[in-house]
Design brief:
Blueprint (H helix, E strand, L loop, with lengths): L5 H10 L4 H10 L7 E10 L6 E6 L8 E3 L10 H20 L13 E6 L53 H9 L1 H19 L12 E10 L5 E10 L14 H14 L2 E2 L10 E2 L5 E5 L9 H11 L18 H6 L4 H14 L23 E3 L7 H11 L14 E6 L3 H26 L12
Antiparallel strand pairs: 1-2, 1-3, 1-11, 4-6, 4-9, 5-6, 5-10, 7-8
Helix pairs in contact: 1-11, 3-7, 4-9, 5-6
The structure holds zinc ion (ZN) (3 copies).
One zinc ion binds next to α3.
Length: 458
Amino acid sequence: MRQLPETDRDAIRIAQEPQYTRWLEQITATGGCAHPVHLSGSTTTLDAETGEILHHYDTHDEPGERLSVRCRNRRATVCAPCSRLHAGDTFHLVRAGLIGGKNVPATVRHRPRLFITLTAPSFGAVHRAGELCRPRRDGGRCQHGRPISCGAAHDATDLLVGQPLCPDCYDYTAHVLWHANAGKLWDRFVIGVRRHLASSVDLVQSRFPEHARLSFARVAEYQRRAAVHVHAVVRLDGPAGPDDEPPAWGTADRLSDAVRATARRLLVRTPHSPAVGELALRWGVQVDARPLRADGAGLDDDAVAAYVAKYVTKGAGDTGAGTDHRVSTWDDIDMAPVSEHVRTLMRTCWRLGGLPEYAPLRLRTWAHTLGYRGHILTKSRAYSTTYAALRAERAHHVGHSDIPSTVTDAHWRYVGSGHTPGAALIAAGIAEDLAESRRIGADARQEGGGANYPSART
Ligand SMILES: [Zn+2]
Ligand SMILES: [Zn+2]
Ligand SMILES: [Zn+2]
């Protein structure tokens, strides 16, 4: 036993513990989470009328006198099992808003629903994958002496894709300030769509909520040029939300017109800066708005939900657009494992972050995400169910409804996190087994046709 690697010896030690079976149950209940959180505490359920104890649970009887719960990290690089679970929840959350389920009525499928993609504008020419990159018959050079054309056909894996043809021509300031205002651009966009709908039927804007309700779920994705673009499902209901029919004028065509017109017209101005001036920020000219049809023609609801869910497992670091952790010094940026293009964006965040007029944008805090500080997934309240509700439903199914959803409960205490080397090995095995059985299940369900993923050019 002495010759065995430390990890194996630790695993054997764990397996010989008297409460090993219960410990394995706990780890299985976390799905083999790579960084579980350990809690200690108790829950007592009393009958509201008689005060009789209906149920009591105490971690005192658990192995190590603690209970392990999932870390719930959404990113695959941090915890693969929790990230898979989060992606699954996102899929159900988006899907319920499209076709019903999870307390959302099935009638939502007959509402005007669009799958839209809004891009960032161009901040300068970058190398593109696909046919020919940037062919120009006359060639030519920019003021910095660099070619303004590229006749190559880059493969999607080419590291040059997304990098600017000339970093000196590229508008890094605009890119970063656009990111920092992307949330505002989205909020204004939603308001603008409502306004456009109202005015298209001669309705006073303030009365729109009495006639209809606009709901959405959106996800942010980093493109190869390290600019965020937005995919969103947008749905039009009656004033009461998912249970309510929209008015007769609320058609997919009208919604689509409103989306396109608003995205084209919208303008957000940055506050004046002595160093930068004032920038007018817009969405890119590429606006995609595709109706989802109840008869199943066109885009497939499940494919759209799966497409959105795919993005929530990725952090800025996974796509090469930034890092997973905050940077706290200029030197951190120098050391970051990113391309020169991304490094320049991070430096631009740092530099602009030092200007008092941009203080509210907190550009240094968000230098690792290139100034973008939104959540990866955002949804309006009436769109569908919530992550919390999906988690509660699952806890109920596995009989773990004792576990508090947060550690703020007075009777629960955080006592640590993570695995010993041997426990990590066992947990990884459990996660692998669960993933495998899920794959087999998915294959069985998918028989008869795969999903059609909508695509957007990077
Ligand atoms: Zn985890
Ligand atoms: Zn090129
Ligand atoms: Zn140049």
